[in-house]
Design brief:
The complex is a heterodimer of chains A (117) and B (418). Chain A has 117 residues and is an alpha+beta fold. Chain A contains four helices and six strands; from the N terminus they run βααββββααβ. Chain A has one domain (2-111): Dimeric alpha+beta barrel (Alpha-Beta Plaits), CATH 3.30.70. Chain A has a four-stranded antiparallel beta sheet with strand order 2-5-1-6. A two-stranded antiparallel ribbon of chain A has the order 3-4. The model of chain A has no long low-confidence stretch (mean pLDDT 87). The chains are: A alpha+beta (117), B mainly alpha (418).
């Protein structure tokens, strides 16, 4: 088993087009998904990221430059992340694909390299 | 950080339609305090709150009191937006006090707001077909896409009607002088349309159609609970209750179940009781409305423990009385079916023959299906088959088609009159 990072991307303008009923249904399915993955022993952790866009830190010349970011426009944000446990990429993609987030945005799946591998 | 979905966590289940209800409460509250000109502010605020919930709740527990959380978040958002607008402290303060009352579960305010908005809608110079989408959107919290799916209209058409309706709503809210007098009949018509739309089975999303009918029920009860509610309002509320009460038995494994085959134990008894309560209150007037007769017909159906025990002769008389108010072909068709159910096949067939001569229902599959069914009952199988063929050729919706294909083992329910 390996750990995989799921980054939850979304387009806020798409999200805000959902009707109240659709949003409620989505939340319910989201929570059910989280519970299911946890009950299967595959959930490592999950975090919501704050609404503000974050900072980007770069060394520029001799100094550290800090800019807002990483997204200049609000067309894409990363709203949250999960770390799950899966057999391989295929398995991780299967789990990510069952997450209702895939319907309102997209999910970036990355394998976390285990120390000593 | 809470463990997402940890099995031990007691996840409070969200109340059915919580989001929709919260939205309509907030919109109604803002409109009551700030006027219909600020309806967009309410809609934006509540949308923001819900998006916040969507991004937050999956990672934590659902708050203890989700309704209060949503209300609080939306209220704060509305105040932020007001501040940016510099609308003045007074408006802000009034809104805060009002929404505070709502958030603390002020049921009286809630209902008053709803009634206020409903009455405001009724004063708009809009035809019912433009009002229905507006009411469904503003009061019911359904999106243009959902309304379009439920009413079988193009989404663009619905969106356009909502935008136009809101523009009129904003204009109409400027001062009482510009409003046309409160027209109760228009509200009744809108609610009635919503009920029939929600009841008419078709290829549209069944769940959404049920939602539309439930919204009609909610609005009808709201109207009937107001001071000075008229007998017609009570009759309409009774009709909504007694119609929606039968919904749980109308569907089985994705197929429509008509009245004769319905499992009557699945009818919603609480709604049936409320329906009869409303019907009693409706009895005080001197001139009965069409809703009085329709509610009385629905009551006859609900009162009967079995199909055989239904008072079909009474229903025939009620349809007859309804015809004096609304002599539409559909009402007469319903009377013909009731006549047949009462064992008066020949009388029923005579009504259909007259209707056929007038030709108004010639393109309606149900007319031919009903005629086929009546002919079948009188033993005229070959004529029955040709009318059934005619009905199928007119392309009825899939749910109806499946019913027709099953044949006439059981008599079917009277179609919803519209």
């Amino acid at each position: 088993m390996r750990d995989y990072l799921l980054l939850l991307h979304e387009d806020p303008s798409e999200t805000s087009r959902l009707s109240p009923t659709e949003m409620q249904a989505l939340i319910e399915r989201y929570i059910a998904w989280g519970r299911e993955v946890a009950e299967a022993g595959r959930m490592v952790t999950g975090h919501k990221l704050t609404e503000e866009g974050g900072r980007v830190v770069r060394r520029s010349g001799g100094a550290i430059a800090v800019t807002d970011g990483p997204y200049v426009e609000a067309r894409e944000i990363v709203g949250g992340l999960y770390v799950i446990r899966a057999e391989d990429y295929e398995d991780a993609v299967r789990i990510a694909g069952s997450c209702p987030h895939a319907e309102i945005g997209w999910i970036e799946v990355r394998e976390i390299e285990a120390v000593g591998d | 950080m809470a463990e997402p979905g940890s099995p031990a966590a007691e996840v409070p289940v969200l109340v059915d339609r919580l989001f929709r209800r919260t939205r309509s409460r907030l919109v109604a509250g803002v409109v009551r305090v700030l006027g219909p000109g600020r309806i967009d502010l309410a809609e934006d605020a509540v949308q923001d709150a819900m998006v916040r919930a969507l991004r937050t709740w999956p990672f934590r527990r659902i708050p203890e009191d989700p309704a209060a959380w949503l209300m609080r978040t939306a209220r704060n958002r509305a105040i932020d937006m007001l501040r940016r607008d510099r609308t003045g402290h007074e408006a802000q303060d009034r809104l805060v006090v009002h929404l505070e009352l709502l958030a603390s579960g002020g049921r009286a305010e809630d209902e008053a707001d709803g009634r206020h908005l409903l009455e405001l809608c009724s004063t708009l110079p809009l035809a019912p077909d433009a009002l229905v989408p507006l009411v469904l959107h503003v009061m019911g919290g359904l999106s243009a896409r959902e309304i379009a799916r439920a009413l079988l209209l193009p989404e663009a058409t619905v969106a356009q009607r909502i935008v136009r309706g809101k523009r009129v709503l904003r204009g109409g809210g400027v001062g009482p002088a510009r409003r046309t007098p409160r027209n109760e009949a228009v509200i009744h018509q809108v609610i009635y349309l919503m009920l029939t739309e929600g009841h008419t089975p078709a290829d549209a999303d069944e769940v959404l159609r049920t939602e539309v009918a439930r919204e009609a029920l909610r609005l009808a009860l709201l109207l009937a609970s107001g001071r000075g509610a008229t007998p017609a309002s009570h009759a309409l509320a009774a009709l909504c209750c007694l119609t929606v009460a039968r919904f749980p038995a109308r569907e089985s494994a994705g197929d429509l179940v008509m009245l004769p085959s319905q499992d009557r134990s699945r009818w919603d008894t609480a709604l049936v009781e409320e329906g009869f309560r409303q019907l009693t209150r409706a009895a005080s007037g001197d001139t009965p409305s069409r809703y009085h007769f329709e509610a009385a017909i629905a009551a006859e159906h609900v009162r009967a423990a079995t199909l055989a025990e239904t008072n079909w002769d009474g229903i025939v008389d009620l349809y007859h009385a309804l015809e004096t108010i609304d002599p539409s072909p559909v009402v007469r068709l319903n009377r013909a079916i009731a006549l047949a159910m009462a064992g008066r096949n020949r009388e029923g067939l005579a009504v259909l023959d007259a209707l056929s001569a007038e030709g108004q229902l010639a393109e309606w599959p149900w007319f031919h299906a009903s005629r086929a069914w009546l002919l079948h009952r009188t033993g005229l199988e070959s004529s029955a088959a040709s009318h059934l063929w005619r009905a199928m050729a007119l392309g009825p919706p899939a749910a109806h088609r499946r019913l027709l294909e099953r044949g006439f083992d059981a008599p079917r329910e009277d179609p919803p009159s519209s």
